[in-house]
Design brief:
The chain is an alpha/beta fold and about 625 residues long. Helices cover about 40% and strands about 15% of the residues. It is built from 23 helices and 21 strands. The chain is globular, with a radius of gyration of 27 Å.
């Protein structure tokens, strides 16, 4: 087997809707790409979501870099994620660097603290850049003298350079008079030990502060870093104030940076709103709901701009903000501060990011299916959108899944459901606790997912497939849920003529059906598609699951159904043997871990529905 010529670096990051974490990852990627280009080493950087616990990926890489994160055992699960990644890297002798890490209290009597400490001292850890409490790190965590420790600024101070393509050349010449008010979720302060600053307090606080800004002649707008719960509370604040404007949720890190770059000033709860503002020279005021904000204020020389919980009144914050606007001291990281952040990381990459000698493993990524037409953005839920489909085609995917449901006017739409999550993705209002009802196809098509992705009816998808001129080498697995008898008839009635296009073959389409009655009804229609029976069971023991799978396989044989689909937890060596013995092709679905998806293929799955990491990610990592 050939060895890949590129050095593969696993960038471990927190991937979620809080785009402060995305900004950290983007800045790390920017610095690493610059370094490897400077060293004339071709590389591929893989953004690994720390929460997936997909440890099998680590063995394919040549170096691991943590993009931020915190050494802590409260509120977050870093105490689980960081040690296990380091231990796995140590097993494969892969060097590790932690860049811009936060440090919180060490608990001698807490097993998670001890586990974190032990992992950090393993031989694979070569260096740690600390953004705040170096004293605690040196005293309580690190005993290995070979680990290089550096006190640095948060990596987001490079944002002005990382995102320079979307920023005006002269930042001071473009700023309007609007003040950005960065809202965080209502339980943020109580979750960090400040129960007095609860939802009611924050609603009144923001309303009073807004009235003070207006009385002083300032224009204002609400915004968030993108977190779903921040967004929901932000809308509540706007409703409580009774007037004003809220900016749409930023789509990516560049969106957030662009947004903040255009404010005259920022009053923001989230740490990275303040860091981005500092980097761009925008005066900002923050709140110390966590000690990391106090550390940041002290580090940049503006401790007075970070208000302690006991001082958090609208009057106090307003006064601090006015003083920040009048302050003529220069903000933004100097060359020295940026170099201090960059130098240890570059040293690590130069010394340790070298090609491993092990051969790459043989991969079967060509049998991975892009879930819900695929997506290039792993932090976003799958959208079944036009953009996702064309992204997948451009990356060379030829195997897809798509979810289909009927709208209220009985049009077959590419969507997973009509629940509250969908309404939030489309930015539609949700009121009360009542179940959300389907909307019309016209209403659906009038909106976009995340203000970015375009919905499609199934007819539109088929037209896009014809326009794209797909050849014979593609597969589309269609999920239609578990409709009632009337709904099933309506769905299949719409699908039949679309699938019958002479440019399609029967092998191109697989229709997943969840009841035997649905299978038998579909067979009467002679669809231009293969059928798959969806196997499910409440049994938890592998042996019992295999018995149920055997009955499902026998049904497939007797009714000439070639495929058996199942959720990923039901696919293991026992059920694999059942399918192999029966000659039934299995498609386990909804894998979030690439390592598990690869193991599923090794067990003989015909295809695997890879739900989280994109197919091109798998291809580049494992080839």
């Amino acid at each position: 087997m050939a060895v890949s010529s590129k050095i593969k670096i696993l960038l471990v990051s927190t991937t979620n809707m809080n785009l402060g974490d995305t900004v950290i990852a983007d800045n790390n990627r920017y610095l690493m790409e610059r370094a490897m280009k400077h060293f004339h080493r071709p590389c591929e950087i893989f953004c690994y979501n720390i929460a997936t616990r997909d440890l099998a990926q680590i063995a394919f890489c040549d170096a691991v870099v943590f993009a931020g994160g915190i050494l802590k055992v409260t509120n977050e699960k870093f105490c689980l994620y960081i040690p296990e990644i380091i231990r796995e890297a140590n097993t494969h002798n892969i060097p590790v660097f932690l860049n811009g890490i936060g440090v919180e209290r060490f608990y001698e009597d807490h097993p998670d603290s001890v586990e974190m400490r032990d992992a950090l001292n393993l031989p694979c850890v070569k260096g740690i850049n600390v953004r705040d409490d170096m004293d605690t790190l040196r005293r309580d965590y690190i005993s290995n003298p070979d680990i290089a420790l550096h006190s640095v600024y948060d990596v987001a101070i490079w944002s002005r350079f990382t995102y320079k393509q979307i920023l005006p050349k002269k930042l001071d010449a473009r700023r309007n008079e609007v003040i950005g008010l960065g809202i965080a979720r209502d339980m943020l302060f109580p979750d960090y030990g400040h129960p007095e600053i609860d939802r009611a307090f924050l609603l009144d606080f923001w309303k009073d502060l807004i009235h003070m800004l207006e009385a002083a002649g300032y224009r204002w707008v609400l915004f968030t870093n993108g977190d779903t719960y921040d967004e929901r509370f932000c809308k509540d604040v706007l409703a409580y104030v009774g007037h004003g404007e809220k900016l749409p949720a930023p789509f990516d890190g560049a969106d957030l940076v662009r947004m903040i770059a255009n404010f005259r000033g920022v009053i923001g709860a989230r740490m990275h709103s303040n860091i981005i503002a500092y980097t761009l020279g925008v005066p900002s005021v923050g709140f110390v709901w966590n000690q990391k904000l106090r550390f940041w204020g002290n580090k940049i020389g503006f401790p007075e701009r970070f208000v302690e919980p006991e001082d958090m009144t609208a009057n106090r914050v307003f006064d601090v903000f006015k003083a920040a606007l009048r302050d003529k001291r220069k903000t933004g990281p100097s060359f020295r501060k940026r170099r201090q952040m960059k130098k240890p990381l570059w040293h690590f990459l130069k010394q340790y990011a070298v090609k491993n000698t092990f051969e790459t493993r043989k991969s079967a990524y060509d049998r991975l299916m892009a879930a819900n037409l695929g997506t290039p953005y792993v932090r976003y839920k799958s959208t079944n959108s036009r953009e996702a489909f064309y992204y997948s085609l451009a990356e060379g995917y030829r195997n897809f899944t798509v979810s289909l449901r009927l709208t209220s006017d009985r049009i077959l739409m590419c969507t997973q459901s009509f629940g509250k999550d969908l309404y939030h993705l489309l930015n539609l209002p949700v009121t009360g606790e009542e179940p959300v009802q389907p909307i019309t196809a016209e209403e659906f098509l009038d909106h976009t997912y995340y203000n970015r992705f375009t919905p499609m009816t199934f007819q539109m998808l088929i037209q896009e497939m014809l326009t794209a001129d797909l050849q014979e080498d593609f597969t589309l697995l269609c999920y239609i849920g578990k409709p009632d008898e009337e709904g099933l008839a309506c769905i299949l009635e719409q699908m039949a003529p679309l699938l019958a296009n002479p440019r399609f073959r029967r092998e191109n389409f697989i229709l997943r059906l969840e009841t035997r009655a649905s299978v038998e009804y579909a067979q009467t229609l002679n669809l231009n598609a293969q059928l798959a029976y969806h196997f499910t069971t409440k049994e938890t023991a592998p042996g019992k699951q295999a018995e149920k799978a055997r009955a499902a396989a026998e049904y497939c044989i007797s009714h000439k159904v070639p495929f058996l689909t199942m959720r990923e937890g039901l696919w293991h060596k026992d059920t694999a043997k059942v399918c192999m013995d029966a000659g039934i092709k299995a498609i386990p679905c909804s894998y979030n871990k690439l390592g598990d998806a690869m193991e599923a293929l090794k067990l003989g799955a015909a295809y695997v529905g890879n739900h989280y990491y994109t197919v091109d990610y798998a291809k580049k990592l494992t080839k």
